[in-house]
Amino acid sequence: MLKQFQKLKPRDIYLNRLIAFQDKEPVKVVTGIRRCGKSCLLKLMQKHLLDSGIQQNQIIAMNFESMEYRNLDVQAFYHSIKDRVLPDKKMYLFFDELQRLDQWEDAVNSFRIDFDCDIYITGSNAYLLSSEYSTYLSGRYVEIKMLPLSFREFLDFHEYEIREYESPLGIQKRAYDSSGEMALWEDLFEAFLHYGGMPGITDIALEQEKVFILLDGIYSTIVVRDILEREKRRGERRITDPILLRKIILFLADYIGNNTSLNSISNTLVSENLLRDRKKYDKPATQTIAAYVGALQEAYMFYEIKRFDVKGKEKLKTLGKYYIVDIGLRNYLLGYRDIDTGHILENIVFFELLRRGFDVAIGKIGDKEIDFIATKDEEKIYYQITDDMTAESTKERELAPLRAVRDNYEKIVIAMKTPTTASIEGIKIVRLIDFLLE
Fold this sequence. Notes:
The chain is of the alpha/beta class. The chain has 16 helices and 16 strands. The chain has helices at residues 12-20, 38-51, 74-82, 104-114, 131-137, 151-157, 185-195, 208-228, 231-234, 242-254, 262-271, 286-298, 327-334, 341-355, 392-403, 432-436, and strands at residues 27-31, 59-63, 91-96, 117-123, 141-145, 161-167, 170-176, 182-183, 302-309, 314-324, 359-365, 368-376, 379-388, 410-417, 423-424, 427-431. A hairpin with a 5-residue loop joins β7 (170-176) and β8.
């Protein structure tokens, strides 16, 4: 068992969240897109248990992606665990991709009631936390939302060490590879923009062809297992048109950070003749688009962000935006393009804020828009994201929405290029690299 832990890379932000709920009643549910590291996180938690004195025979781990459990039914699943439970011992149960087992929620609820156990499960589809499951556990679960690697994790996984040094401008950071050679931030961030943060790319050379082969496998699995096959388990609206599904995926990937409605997706697909290879040439209904987009969100491939009226203090039902969970997947789908940098940077910052535990909304104040309002507990921060703050016109455009906000919460402009990292009229100016390395 210990041997399988030797090559594990740390994911401390998520591991610490699991540890915080160790030996507490809630079932720990780790969710996220396929191949973002959920299985490894369960192994990291098992290693933590062993290191803290838990015996190996107190840990039961099953991965339902394995053929070993393909024909297992819920009754056999329950009894296989019951037979391994030790009397008068706390048991630790780890079930990976459990949504592949029909009626698994019955068994998990029984484990919770019948045994002295601590339960950890993962799933690659939001079906895992559907209303049916919530009813069974009556709120007795905690969700750990896992994402692909952040830029900081990307550096760690590729064995870059970050060192701080004192300069006339204050504390600065440099990156060094495993041989001690200094690397340029521009090169490292460009690699992150090209290849994204799927942990699996760490095991292969950072070459576009190899990375795209890996991402093709992830994409295909998401489409087939988590979307096209999902209705077999649910009886909801079938996703029956793989061509339409791919066109919607390409649309959302291309239009990250743009104001989007279900109707605009449908109109664009028709007006740009993107459905010419479909058997039916009629415009897809809004309900159909909604079902397909919902399936993509359930598979954690795209995330929607809603608007918030800063003055009215209420969420708005008007146009929202979509962001793709990994920028490498976008490049695989569309090809790498050195355009639309502003929305790409927004995409990266959005998911960084989610990693840090913030709820994120778009801010609307009059006719102006604030890229992100990030809230957590009593904390609130307004963010503007831009590629370049060196031009005076850009500076004024980015500062104007933040100036219009009259409360005393922190206001920050994050810029890829900026002549200053101080503040303007109380609004902080932060380099993107510094923000991502916090």
